[in-house]
Automatic annotation (TrEMBL):
This is Sugar ABC transporter substrate-binding protein. InterPro entries: Bact_solute-bd_prot1, SBP. It comes from Rugosimonospora africana. Residues 1-26 form the signal peptide. The keyword Mitochondrion does not apply. Keywords: Signal. The lineage of its organism: Bacteria, Bacillati, Actinomycetota, Actinomycetes, Micromonosporales. The keyword Lipid metabolism does not apply.
Length: 433
């Protein structure tokens, strides 16, 4: 479930790790002392699965761990994703952060590490972290493991096969020219081409970031994340591409006030219920739609395709935008916390997460075989074969810089600012951090 875009999410010192490719091979209070007494420990746990099935699945995982470790109990606070993103930074400024909390890695995690509240789990995880492959490096800061991923993500287009057919579209678009043509066909058939949840800002960022990945060389992208310098004109070109696309009016009416995942009128709900033909979103979209869909057969009507390439552009074809979800432990949580995260990373639990639609693409490659939905298999295959997965910019960058970039892109969607202004906002935020 979205599981997961975090804003805040994101130390240039970490940027090398955060830019590593991801590959498939590869309710209660917040007591930071973990309530240890008489050999018993109660771990407070904040996660973002506030809806079923995820809420119940995480509870059952905690219950199963407790049965095998009777001295460890849990006090769980499921919290809606956008609210959780606000709660975590505040909690880390307090004396009582939760023992376990949602973690998206990258520069956001590096920013959190500066609070001194995150547990360094390097030694505690050294015997098994390699089972997760290259992806675990994205939850490191200065080479130390401060978070453990339980799933991976890649962003692409979810689309309604029935609405594409209705508009006379026989194949998903491979280039931006194809996509623009398909938008026109959908409009001609009186179908809203695209849904977007601009109220939450981060869905807007996906668009600009993908245009940047198409217009900029991979070396340029990597050096920008590492050195915090956005000097190449390809970034201005990305903004120009975005402006041109927005100018075709592809999105639903009043998209600036639409949330991404909350309610049937959210962008996810619009696609789930056939009110829009497609949405640029993460692989989590499939389970996110479960409580939003009136048509419970919606999954059979969905397809997926990667962000189209731009003919003749400098970007490496197939480079994708992604990330993942995980958990961190607070310093005072004690050894039970990393041990519990080891349990979550096990093939058995990862398989359960996939089978219950609590996770879509598992972080443990041994659980990939649990994916049965044909569309998710398509997504997993793309994740496995993509030449590079760039972590979401706002997550890869220091928190203040990522927030400033998201704000500038959101303002751009609202008709304010310029392509150059997005780059200027980034540069100003770097100077002010």
């Amino acid at each position: 479930m979205h599981v997961h875009m975090s804003i805040p999410r994101r130390c240039a010192a970490l940027a090398v790790a955060t830019a590593l490719a991801l590959t498939a091979t590869a309710c209660g209070g917040n007591d930071s002392s973990s309530n240890s007494s008489g050999g018993k420990t109660t771990l407070t746990w904040w996660h973002n699965a506030d809806q079923q099935p995820g809420r119940g699945v995480w509870q059952s995982i905690a219950d199963d761990y407790h049965k095998a470790h009777t001295n460890v109990s849990f006090k769980i606070s499921p919290t809606q994703n956008e609210s959780l993103k606000t709660k975590i930074p505040i909690a880390l400024q307090s004396s009582d952060p939760p023992n376990i909390f949602q973690q998206w890695g990258g520069g956001a995690e590096a920013t959190q590490v500066q609070s001194g509240k995150l547990m360094d789990m390097t030694d505690a995880t050294s015997s098994w972290i390699k089972d997760l492959g290259n992806s675990a490096a994205l939850w490191q800061a200065d080479g130390k493991q401060y978070g453990i991923p339980y799933d991976l993500h890649v962003v692409g287009f979810w689309y309604r096969k029935d609405l594409f057919t209705q508009a006379g579209i026989t194949n998903p678009p491979a280039t931006m020219d194809d996509l623009n043509s398909d938008v026109a066909k959908l409009k001609a058939a009186h179908i809203t081409p695209m849904a977007i949840g601009s109220k939450d800002k981060w869905p807007d960022a996906f668009w600009w970031e993908y245009f940047a990945l198409r217009e900029c060389s991979l070396d340029t992208i990597k050096s920008t994340i590492k050195d915090l310098k956005m000097t190449d004109q390809c970034y201005v070109k990305a903004g120009q591409d975005l402006k041109t696309f927005i100018g075709t009016s592809p999105f639903q009416n009043a998209f600036l006030g639409t949330p991404a995942q909350q309610g049937a009128g959210s962008s996810a709900g619009l696609v789930a219920n056939g009110k829009a033909a497609m949405e640029l979103q993460g692989d989590w979209e499939l389970p996110t739609m479960i409580p939003l869909a009136t048509d419970k057969q919606y999954a059979t009507k969905l397809g997926w395709f990667p962000f189209p390439n731009i003919t003749g552009s400098p970007g490496t074809p197939g480079v994708a935008l992604g990330g993942g979800d995980g958990f961190s432990c607070s310093v005072k949580a004690g050894p039970a916390c990393p041990d519990f995260l080891k349990y979550i990373s096990s093939t058995e639990v990862q398989t359960k997460l996939v089978q219950t639609n609590t996770a879509t693409l598992p972080s443990n490659p041994a659980a990939v075989s649990a994916i049965t939905d044909p569309t998710l298999k398509t997504v997993q295959n793309y994740l496995s074969s993509a030449p590079y997965i760039q972590m979401y910019f706002d997550q890869a960058l220091p928190t203040s810089v990522g927030n400033a970039l998201n704000d500038a892109i959101a303002n751009f969607f609202a008709g304010q600012g310029t392509p150059e202004g997005i780059v200027q906002a980034f540069t100003k935020a770097v100077a002010n951090q």
